[in-house]
Structures
1.
Amino acid sequence: MTLDTAWARRWIAEAAATLVGERDRLNGLDRAIGDGDHGENLDRGFQAAADRVSGLADATTPAEVLKVVASALISTVGGAAGPLYGTAFARASRATAGEPEWSAETLATALTAAAEGVAERGKSTRGEKTMNDAWGPAADAASAASGAGESAEKALVAAADAARAGAEATEPLVATKGRASYLGDRSAGHRDPGAESTALLLAAAVTAVS
Ligand code: ADP
Ligand code: MG
Ligand code: MG
């Protein structure tokens, strides 16, 4: 099993399927500390992304698939998450251009580029109770796995596990970016919806490996 173009296609199909099922739960997380639309935003975005990816006849690299995903997300997801996820996928695409099969190192490069893109675009950093708290640890875990000589698949599992832990660890945090920051201290005690959706997306990437 390799992280190739077919994997990237399966990833996006799997992400779209996951988000149909998780839509209400993500809306609920966003209802607690935002405006309740995160599940519906991402569901719409990933259905559009999956449609465009299936219509993409001639992709020969994961980067080409991710580029189409980025443009679908930017054009169909309103609010904060559209441009942030669009930037994440666009940066991951650009950082891996021309690579038909990702090594652990390529994965680390992709996730680091995505994490940096989100932080730049959002003018935000880790610890602010945003999707940075999932992307950042995922990038670090992939880099550590790559440095330790692990396979691409093991690096991906490590990244998804780190994103999951990062999303859960947003619960006690007070939000200082995005809509949740309007609540101040009252944002504590709830999981950040964007960190949770990032964990779901990386879990879908793992499922797509097999
Ligand atoms: P909106 O808040 O515009 O309705 P969504 O509900 O789709 O957009 O997305 C909200 C998520 O976006 C938050 O849970 C958070 O993870 C993420 N987010 C919001 N602002 C920022 C930011 N400045 N930096 C990083 N992530 C952010
Ligand atoms: Mg919202
Ligand atoms: Mg909104």
2.
Amino acid sequence: MSKTLTLSVDADGIALITIDLPGRPMNVLAPEFNADFAAAVEQVASDAAIKGAVVTSGKSSGFIAGADLKDLVNAYDAGITPTQAAQASQQISSLFRRMETCGKPFAAAINGVALGGGLELALACHWRVLSDEPSTQIGLPEVKVGLLPGGGGTQRLPRLIGIPSALPLLLQGKSMRPAEALKLGVVHAVAPTAELVQRAREWLLSKADNAAVQPWDRKNFRIPGGAGPMASHAPQTFVAGNALTSSMTQNNYPAPTAIMSCVFEGTQLPIDTGLRIESKYFGKLLAGPVARNMTRTLFVNKTAADKLSARPRDVPRGAVAKVGVLGAGLMGAGIAHVSAQAGIEVVLLDNTREQADNGKAGIAKMQAKTLAKGRTTQAKIDALLARITPTADYADLQGCDLIVEAVFEQRQIKADVTRKAEAVIPTTAVFGSNTSTLPITGLAQASSRPQQFIGLHFFSPVEKMPLVEIIVGEQTSQATIAKALDYIGQLKKTPIVVHDFPGFYTSRVFGTFVQEGQRMLLDGIAPALIENAAKAAGFPVGPLAVSDEVTLTLQQAIARQHDADGVPVQYRSQVGRAVVDKMVDELKRPGRRQGAGFYDYPADGSPKRLWPGLAQAFPLAPQQPGVDELKQRFLTIMALETARCVEDGVIDNAADADIGSILGIGFPPWTGGTLSYIDTLGAERFVAQCQALAAVHGPRFTPSPWLLARAASGTRFYPPVSAAA
Ligand code: NAI
């Protein structure tokens, strides 16, 4: 008997193949499974007593999650070539092709999540019934990690549901819930999980001989919506795809273009040729750096962070039952909201009861919008709101096992609320500050229990942003780190752990992006060019727009605080200051909230426009640089600042640095993060790039002796995995 699946045949001659990979929480298309599955298919094909087969999973966690992405990263690091990667894809494709052409019908009983290769296996079955559990998701998410579905997904999905419906699913990697999958025709039926196998059996038994032939292997097959035997390829068929591709790729992401090519080329040809075309494109992607970097950071390492891999192992796990949030403003209300959503009791405290009530009312408003979209129920909202107690009375904080402080960014105020809260909360409680800039060790001086004091840096808007930066102060204990991580785990957010420093990790690196954009203004570069260059590099917004969002007043306040604290000059914005002071003090344009910053924000709600007055305030240079030069400045200054953070001991884990740069501060995902960017270029080439920029733009680009030494010795941030891995 095989290890990864079982095969049994009932009295009606229906085989039941139950996939259950030992030692894994989820089924994946691991090499050992592929071999077992190939043998099972041959058994069904050759045993005359078997009429057809049901394929299902023995795991309650779902059907098949796809390929094991760790294997892909290892393969890349071991130097896999495009040809070898294409061969691996061809092997899977041949296996699925054998299943669909072996003369016996296969029906997939999809009992939960089926992603990537899992859905591709199901698509190669002749019939599919999907669990009607609302949590069930199926889809082809490969594009999100820089890949394409290499097990027939780009060929079968368009042939099944038509090119216009298939392209968005392939290009955006969105998953479908049962109702949508049924409506689109990706599955033939939905049913309760307990009835899936029976439904699949019934289908197999009720079918005549030609059930074992896929639509695309029949005579006169037409792709849905297509005019001819293959796809019509009328220009409009690809319009939606083209729009999605160009807005997403900006030349940085090869996967969407490769997917378009697979669909365009493959659907004009017989499926066997289409599958070979798909494997060829897959091979190129898998052997390229973008797929490796995205897979490693956004999947393998992010998953580990989500599972709290940074948690000190000798501290028992615990859950936060009651959290006190100090300050019911933008951040405090958001933190209260996500905590209540996670089932935690929340005491939301502000200066006055009215301010605390306002914070809660904002949460109710957001929930009402979610309800209007049909994504929650009134009962759930009622329960969530009942968990939030607004107050101005510190006595209500009694029994809180965690405090998150989110009052104004001023030391005295923070010290004052720390003392008042600590007088009430249990001596075992942890005190977390959501400060965005003030060093934690300094804030902990106000605490009588500095070992229980920690930074919990959320990002705005809290409801949407997945990252939380945990800042360890000089005296923060391991138990406190563990409790903070347990809390972030409860919120289902992604934690990174960093050490104390002005600006910690994310704010410090983010600052270099904003300041580089402001520096470009001083250089006389056209504002629209600055903004577009950042977006062309893959940042979600330009540095001037993002300056307006965080407000120039805040940047000015931080710069002044740094002056007052005597923060060493290399860690401060020298370049941006001239711009920020001018914008705030002279031009009275402090940011978006006031309707005027680098952009104008029309009161009628029409889209923001770059302020025409910028041309006078920052006169244009007669010669404008090319976009590529500006892109390089943004990417280099942020990567260099991250390397400095490693050198300074602010961050010691390359995975955390990369995750934080993408999820927290918008560094382009195609790079895999700031340190992956350096490793991919190679440290030697990176320092040469820095030196060339320093020669023109000044010492902020000068690599440190530490970095030069690493480059000389070829030291990487990620150790290369040996070929044996
Ligand atoms: P906010 O101004 O929206 O809210 C601050 C709230 O604290 C107000 O409701 C205020 O009434 C209350 N408050 C002030 N003094 C208080 C006291 N003594 N006792 C009780 N409540 C008091 O400010 P925001 O943006 O929510 O920021 C709060 C903290 O979060 C700051 O430390 C900020 O640096 C940090 N932060 C802000 C981010 C942002 O994007 N706005 C991102 C990450 C951190």
